[in-house]
From TrEMBL:
Bilayer topology term: Multi-pass membrane protein
Family note: Belongs to the MCTP family.
Keywords: Calcium, Membrane, Metal-binding, Repeat, Transmembrane, Transmembrane helix
Gene3D superfamilies named in the record: C2 domain
Phylogenetic classification of the source organism: Eukaryota, Metazoa, Chordata, Craniata, Vertebrata
Protein name: MCTP2 protein
Organism the protein comes from: Nesospiza acunhae
């Protein structure tokens, strides 16, 4: 019930600098569980923003009254990575020893924000649901931890896809839950949901 809402939420997105990425933002109004209405949208050219600084932007909503006030910072990623299984991080014994030293008890108060990190190896899925008329799916996998989100490539026409990717996330809250969702790519349409699993970090 507000025309001037304050969210104060922070989201982290990861992109590669050789791509020309646009950040698309939509504002929606929800009356109840069934009725939603688009209140406006705006677009930001990420490549046009100055790097390594916080940019304060007031963005007017296209074809609708109102604007969004946002703080956007473009900075090099730290602690987040995607790699192939064959070049898996932490495979080097020396690197594992450095990590053990970094997170040993005597160093635990050196940097209170550096809780640790989570490494996830996404190998494959088995017996997925067929989402296409051909009896196949075009599955990809999305991993979310807090407000961090990474995803695999799409394996086309396959109900038993193999991704063999390694994802590394920095941990900001030990009570976070890792959510792994499988979608079916559907061209320009929104992807179809194929399944989901949630793993609390405290259970690892």
């Amino acid at each position: 019930k507000s025309a001037n809402p304050q969210w104060r939420e922070q989201f982290d997105f990861h992109y590669f600098s050789d791509r020309k990425d646009m950040l698309d933002i939509e504002v929606w109004r929800k009356d109840n569980k069934k009725h939603e209405e688009l209140l406006g949208r705006c677009h930001i050219d990420i490549t046009a923003l100055p790097a390594k600084q916080t940019n304060c932007l007031e963005l007017p909503l296209e074809k609708h009254p109102g604007s969004l006030l946002m703080l956007i910072a473009v900075s090099p990623c730290t602690g987040v990575s995607i790699s192939d299984l064959c070049v898996c991080p932490l495979g080097d014994p020396n690197e594992r020893q450095q990590i053990s030293q970094r997170y040993c008890i005597k160093n635990s108060f050196r940097d209170m924000k550096d809780i640790g990190f989570l490494q996830v190896k996404v190998l494959k899925a088995v017996d997925l649901m067929a989402a296409d008329f051909s009896g196949k799916s075009d599955p990809f996998c999305v991993l979310e931890l807090g407000n961090d989100m990474l995803q695999t490539h799409t394996v086309y026409k396959n109900l038993n896809p193999e991704w063999n990717k390694v994802f590394t996330f920095p941990i900001k809250d030990i009570h976070d839950v890792l959510e792994v969702t499988v979608f079916d790519e559907d061209g320009d349409k929104p992807p179809d949901f194929l399944g989901k699993v949630a793993i609390p970090l405290l259970s690892v």
